[in-house]
Design brief:
Mean pLDDT: 85
Helix content: 55-70%
Strand content: 5-15%
Number of helices: 12
Shape: globular
Distance between the termini: 18 Å
Number of strands: 5
Strand order of the largest sheet: 2-1-3-4-5
Length: 286
């Protein structure tokens, strides 16, 4: 399915370059463009594009303010920020507003194509997950048949994430993997299960205390957060950091952990085990 784009940038040359990249690489079609933040808000609301490429610094209102206003309307638009900004504070603000990726100026064709492909793939997977959840909710009494082939692929994907986070040696990763498999076998919808019930089922199956299992899981997840925050301090634009800081963790909490490591805050980042598990479920299935 071809994506529909809107480009909001006060530089006409940048708009032409982005449109040319989109069209020449068969990424979709640009339905409208403008050079002003207020106009950009209007045309995004009007066209409701699949993807909006938005400059950070705009007349009228800046890109972050535009995205915050439009996102509040629960529109199904993915946002990519286009900017020369290198300030971590500005970049953090943009991610918190709801962008999915950054494209850096001056425009690089390979980076632009790569980022747009990632966003399109993410949108496709979300659509698939939504359809799966609808189907499961209708036939929740039917246990899905899990083939050995897909199970091996799922395990490879999940353990790659563990490896990327530097926690593959943590005792809790085996428990986390069992949790993911248990949820997948039950065919549970994303928000229908309770972690306490999963811990209890694992406790009965492993003949171990549920609290001990939970502690191992939390320690491994916390270690992943710490390692990811440290990676972000070393290279803010690292692909692993950019991806996992929003898919497996709450980006604000990753920032809190980074500030703690830098001595800027006395508070550490907090983990959300359910968000971490749901991120792994997404990785496992797709």
């Amino acid at each position: 399915m071809s994506s529909r784009f809107v480009i909001v940038d006060d530089d006409a040359g940048i708009r032409r370059i982005l449109q040319k990249i989109i069209e020449q690489n068969n990424l979709g079609m640009v339905v409208d463009e403008c050079d002003d933040g207020l106009k950009g808000e209007m045309i995004i609301r009007e066209y409701q594009p699949d993807i909006a490429l938005v400059d950070l610094l705009l007349p009228g209102q800046d890109g972050v303010e535009l995205i915050e206003k439009v996102s509040a309307s629960a529109m199904n638009t993915s946002f990519i920020m286009v900017s020369q900004a290198t300030s971590e504070q500005l970049i953090t603000k943009a991610y918190e507003a709801g962008i999915e990726f950054f494209i850096h100026k001056p425009i690089n064709i390979l980076e632009t194509v790569s980022v747009i492909n990632k966003v399109q793939e993410s949108r496709r997977l979300k659509q698939i997950m939504s359809l799966m959840h609808e189907t499961i909710s209708q036939y929740s009494h039917v246990r899905p048949v899990v083939d050995e082939g897909p199970k091996n692929i799922q395990k490879t994907r999940i353990y790659k994430a563990f490896s990327d986070l530097g926690i593959i040696g943590e005792a809790g990763v085996k428990d986390i993997y069992r949790m993911v498999q248990l949820i997948l076998k039950q065919g549970s919808e994303g928000k229908s299960y309770q972690l306490s019930h999963i811990y209890q089922q694992m406790s009965e199956g492993l003949e171990q205390d549920a609290k001990a299992i939970e502690q191992r899981v939390r320690r491994a997840t916390t270690k992943g957060l710490q390692n990811l925050a440290n990676l972000g301090l070393e290279d803010y634009y690292n692909e692993i950091f950019q991806s996992y800081s929003t898919s497996l963790f709450d980006f604000k909490e990753v920032r809190h952990e980074m500030n703690y490591m830098q001595g800027k805050s006395q508070y550490r980042g907090k983990i959300n085990v359910k968000k971490f598990i749901e991120g792994l479920l997404f990785i496992a299935e797709h």
